[in-house]
Design a protein that fits this description.
mainly beta; 11 strands; single chain; seven-stranded mixed sheet; globular; four-stranded antiparallel sheet
């Protein structure tokens, strides 16, 4: 059974930073590309970033403004998302996904990031 467990969310002030983590199990982690997707309160899902199986290629949504950095440690079966210069509009539940053919096939339960002073 595929499991994806996110952590690292919380309440942070505008301008702060967070690093989200996602531990995968139940599959061969380094066989798959992975993504981060977020959902702000009352809004739809928004793709944030993706990374290739070996971490050699990374992709970001155009409107992320260069504040997001995706990475992975295949030895630890862990995906990361570093978010800097947090803004109120970054408030959302952040999900990690396991990807196949550019489609998110499995999702974690999400971690809530709240940006507020």
């Amino acid at each position: 059974e595929v499991q994806l467990v996110e952590s690292g969310g919380g309440l942070v002030q505008p301008g702060g930073s967070l690093r989200l983590s996602c531990v995968g199990s139940g599959f061969t982690f380094d066989d798959y590309a992975m993504s981060w997707v977020r959902q702000a309160p009352g809004k739809g899902l928004e793709w944030v970033s993706a990374i290739s199986w070996d971490g050699g290629d990374t992709y970001y949504a155009p409107n992320m403004g260069g504040r997001f950095t995706i990475s992975r440690d295949n030895a630890k079966n862990t995906l990361y998302l570093q978010i800097d210069e947090l803004k109120s509009e970054d408030t959302a539940v952040y999900y990690c996904t396991k990807d196949e053919d550019y489609t998110s096939t499995d999702w974690g339960q999400g971690t809530l990031v709240t940006v507020s002073s």
